[in-house]
Fold:
Amino acid sequence: MSEKFRGVAWILAAVLAFVVPTVFVYQTVVDLSSPYPASVTAPAAVAAAPRDTVFVGVISRYPSSVIFRGYQPVMDYLSATTGRYFALRLGGSYEETVQQLVHGRVTAAFLGAYLYVKAHDEYGVVSVVQPLNEDGVPSFRSVLITREGSDIRGLKDLVGRRVALPPELSYSAHWLMSRAMPMAGLDFKSIGSVRYLPHHHAVVYELLRGNADAAVVKDRVAREFLGRGVRVVVTSDPIPGAPIVVTAKHDEQLVAAITKALVGLTPRDPAFARITANWDPEFAYGFTRAPDADYDRLRAMLGLRVR
Structure:
């Protein structure tokens, strides 16, 4: 084999060694090339699900692969501790998950905080538990991000810029358009263009691809991409945690079992780290109860009626 041919072969092998794993990870973990699937249930769950399976809905906040990876272990834990079989059923949109819950296609659902207060007022859904953050507090924040090296330093720098947002029913999208911009003395119409995308990860990838100048996501997603080309510009005030909810006419024994299993598992438990090792980062610090009154502050911020 000639020296020139060996050199070409070595370069080709190096490229394949990098490209193949990268493509595999991209397609299996953060594949954003296809639309978010509607009404997805994990294949294994479908095959093994008993008749009394407790289906749990999830809004389309992340790609389906990310949700199955981080939420399925929570279902496995509930199945192991409650005596009931739990399975995920993803909605194709935020509103679809609410409709799945209202029409009985799921028994419980992971909703966003903003979506919860709207669904509570419209359908009477009930909050059960909410995740704790790293400070042991049931709250999260929305974050305005841009690319490293961008000249965007504050909200006023969004004038004339392209902004990517998660779905309109997410608090993060609402925060920028209806709260942060007005508080900065800006009309949202001053933004050059706004695009609503299917989920938070899609927002980040549009930013990194150069298709947006700035974006807004949950803090959990922003942290995932810090040091990977993303910089934080502005952070919102704390918002009550995104709850797991049920309908007004729910099985109280089942809700009690879910609450006991999730709230009863705390970082003080010697088994906590092992059990939660594969849970989504949003759930890595455990759960606490989510009384509806916890969301009155959010209602007040949104200008909604506080009961």
About this structure: Confidence is low (pLDDT under 50) at residues 4-41. The chain has three domains: 1-30, 40-138+242-302, 142-236.
